[in-house]
Amino acid sequence: MKKLSFIAITSLLSIFLSISSPAQLVKAIKKGDIKEMEKLIAAGADVNKKSVGATPLYWAAYKNSYEAARLLLDKGANINEGMSNGWNPIHIAAKKGNLEVVKLLIDRGADIYATCPHGGTPLKLAEENGSTLIISMLQQAIEKKDKNLATNLEKTTNVIVNNQVVFALSDVDIDIPISKEIKPNTYALIIGNEDYSSFQTGLSSEVNVDYAINDAKVFKDYCTKTLGIPEKQVKLITNATTGQMIQGIAWLNSLAKVDNGKAELIFYYSGHGLPDEETKEPYLIPVDISGNNVSLAIKLTDVYSKLNEFPAKKVSVFLDACFSGGARNQGLVAMKGVKVKPKEGSITGNMVVFASSTGVESSGVYREKHHGYMTYYLLKKLQETKGDITYKDLSDFVIEIVTKETTLIGKTQTPQLNYSINIENAWQNWSIR
């Protein structure tokens, strides 16, 4: 009798454990059986334990089961826990175009900025899938979070890294306008070269280009948010070496090639520029190139040639760098007293170039705003107009205000706008967005 009782108890326990196992819970999710899920959870099924490599909530998001996802969240499921490789429920829901689940996850506080391997953010995944409603929903959620950040920053605007205040956010770094328009044929390469001293021996931090990384990162935010360029079509490189710059330019070049004349290219650079003392040719300086070896850097005319190698609808170049030998801090070759007027490169194709200063001037830093002067006022106008502005109006504004503001402090900097003769009668009416 005792033996039979033991067998019966063991059998019942086995059944109970089977019923409430994670595998059974996932099976119920896949079948869409909410009542079975409720029974299993009541019997002790762990709503956060992985089965077949993923959490129950991840499977609910994958199967587009709104009711299952809601039940799991109500029962304490971790909203940002999915697979061990970094894919979260909101990633898979955005990738598969599961609108209701994405909305639920956003409303419950999912991390909309989380990145996953080879996938990126939920917004990027939605863009790859072409899910227009999800894209709009995520953009609105991002805008709302940015506004909340701006409200909080009224009390503190300090950027803190490793418990140390680095600098306060500028007014253009927050409250960035969000466009609902998507530009499927626009591609941007954005480079911010700031830290030269860490890549070269014998250089002090004085040669670094203050806030060049901030310039690049915030310009990137305006590209994706205000100009409507999909995340996957924007490449940001900070402290770029020679190889990284060459690869980035080749990436932009290849996109122009495959887009058969429809591509709109944007090239942005903030960092050191220098002329070759003998040829006067201007160069963009990677962080691993010394000012004494300018010929090993990236020749500006070669950049122009690569951007124009294949037909493009529009090519826009923004250079917050000077080429006279001056710099935001100390020039890379300041010890030699170099001050050379660089040769002007010819501009062809459908190209417009915004440059931060003339060939004989230095490009300064607006320290109170934590940006280069040209970049700050460029972003300021994009913020004010939400990107709805022509190239002519934008260039007129930037040239006038930067010249005035820098003259007031005794360091006149005159931004320049150059364009190809091919678009002499067209560029003025181009829209930046």
Query: Mind telling me which CATH architecture of the largest domain this is?
Result: 3-Layer(aba) Sandwich
Order of helices and strands: HHHHHHHHHEEEHEHEEEEHEEEEHHE
In the predicted model, the low-confidence regions spanning at least 5 consecutive residues are 6-19, 152-157, 160-166, 333-342
Indicate the CATH class of the largest domain. Alpha Beta
DSSP strand count? 13
Characterize the largest beta sheet: strand count, sense, and whether it forms a barrel: 6 strands, mixed
Structural class: alpha/beta
Helix content: 25-40%
Oligomer: single chain
Radius of gyration computed on alpha carbons: 27 Å
- Strand content bin: 5-15%
Pick out its properties.
elongated; 433 residues; Serine Threonine Protein Phosphatase 5, Tetratricopeptide repeat; 39% helix; single chain; 14 helices; Rossmann fold; alpha/beta; 6-stranded mixed beta sheet
